[in-house]
Design brief:
The complex is a heterodimer of chains A (116) and B (113).
Chain A (H helix, E strand, L loop, with lengths): L3 E4 L2 E4 L5 E7 L6 E7 L5 E8 L5 E2 L8 E7 L2 E6 L8 E8 L7 E3 L3 E5 L1
Parallel strand pairs in A: 2-11
Antiparallel strand pairs in A: 1-3, 3-8, 4-5, 4-9, 5-6, 7-8, 9-10, 9-11
Chain B lengths: L3 E2 L4 E5 L4 E7 L6 E7 L6 E7 L4 E4 L2 E6 L4 E6 L8 E8 L8 E2 L3 E6 L1
């Protein structure tokens, strides 16, 4: 299957700083990528849909100025958590849409963010 | 309002027996359903899927059944193995385009040796 990578896998930052998470599709072009967030023992909650070359679409309740998404190329989307607070600590997962297999999404391994 | 529901948060099964994980949905526009397996601190891994035009799809030890009239699907794993212990997420999609998956809350399966 298609491969999606995320970097970093784990990050600890201080409150008030910003953190950038990268999501890459390694062997296919992803015109659309999705960013999810998972709290412990909870489901994956969609945060935003990222389309290459255009602005991301955010789900209700997700602050677009806090969670900046950039999808500058067909293989890379980034999520920047700005002015991070402890309540932003979570597991962030990206997935990519592959036109060759339109009904499936391929997930990255996730990034564990801890804000101290 | 949750469109995809997995009402059993956990399931425990003996090795060699059948595991049955259930999923219900409310949106009749969903036309494709997927099951993902997830280990802690990892991304979900695709397991098996089914189109709404089918009622069964089988892949090795995994079979997914779809009952459209009841808006219900289930994942059968037989025989269950200890390595199957993980959280299983049911997901649904409305079309073949670049629309996101809608996930259930997951069921934690424990296969006991």
């Amino acid at each position: 299957g298609a491969v999606v990578s995320q970097h970093p896998s784990r990050v600890i930052c201080k409150s008030g700083t910003s953190v950038k998470i990268e999501c890459r599709s390694l062997d296919f072009q992803a015109t659309t990528m999705f960013w999810y967030r998972q709290f412990p023992k909870q489901s994956l909650m969609l945060m935003a849909t990222s389309n290459e070359g255009s602005k991301a679409t955010y789900e209700q309740g997700v602050e677009k100025d806090k969670f900046l998404i950039n999808h500058a190329s067909l293989t890379l989307s980034t999520l920047t958590v700005t002015s991070a607070h402890p309540e932003d600590s979570s597991f962030y997962i990206c997935s990519a849409f592959n036109r060759a297999t339109p009904y499936e999404q391929y997930f990255g391994p996730g990034t564990r963010l801890t804000v101290t | 309002d949750q469109q995809v529901k997995q009402n059993s948060p956990s399931l425990s099964v003996q090795e060699g027996r059948i595991s049955i994980l259930n999923c219900d949905y409310t949106n009749s526009m969903f036309d494709y359903f997927l099951w993902y397996k997830k280990y802690p601190a990892e991304g979900p891994t695709f397991l098996i899927s089914i189109s709404s035009i089918k009622d069964k799809n089988e892949d090795g030890r995994f079979t997914v059944f779809l009952n459209k009239s009841a808006k219900h699907l289930s994942l059968h794993i037989v025989p269950s193995q200890p390595g199957d212990s993980a959280v299983y997420f049911c997901a649904a999609k409305v079309d073949s385009g670049n629309t996101p998956l809608v996930f259930g809350k997951g069921t934690r399966l424990s296969v006991i040796a």
